[in-house]
Automatic annotation (TrEMBL):
It comes from the Bacteria. Coiled coil: none annotated. Residues 5-118 form the AB hydrolase-1 domain. Pfam families: Abhydrolase_6 (PF12697). It comes from Frateuria aurantia (strain ATCC 33424 / DSM 6220 / KCTC 2777 / LMG 1558 / NBRC 3245 / NCIMB 13370). This is AB hydrolase-1 domain-containing protein. PANTHER family: SLL1969 PROTEIN.
Amino acid sequence: MPERVVLLHGLWMRGFAMGLLQHRLAEADFMVERFDYLSVGESGPKALIERLRQRLMPSEEAEVVHIVGHSLGGLLALRACENDAGLAPGRIVCMGSPLLGSAAARGFAQLGGEALLGPYHGLLEQGFESWTGPRELGVIAGRMRLGLGAVVGQLQGEHDGSVAIAETLLPGLTAHCVVEASHTGLIMSADAARQAIQFLRHGQFLGEEPG
């Protein structure tokens, strides 16, 4: 039976932005669907998380349901899967998600842009302390420094232009890798797609020794 993958886009995007990644995952024989939402216009995270959880339920078409989230989408994926009761088994891949909180988002809020971060600004700014959910979590970070976040967020160390690699290193994750891509470029990167496919299938990234 094929395995299903739900794709979550990031802030200021819509589902169509994940089209190339969807195509690459489909070529790897996953059933892929995009979860579209208004990152700024939604009324709040509670209803969105419940709607997302409904998409992660087992079905006759697929008993395994993975989730791949870019940026804010990765944070929402973790929030939805903190309690896995009733959900189909599967893995999570986060691409460029500031899981420990975003310095760029905090800088943007201080400049008066909090309203443009939408109802998820708190999640973006603060992130999580650790991952204790039941699903295996793989994180793909970029290190091509192209993006506005580097200007407003005073990012430290290597980063993808919006998110520092250090911000993606959430305690409790299963595996972590870095590719040559900018923040937005992660969802178009062939290397990132290959790494995502590897983790969804095997729970580790290419180049890692089996655990």
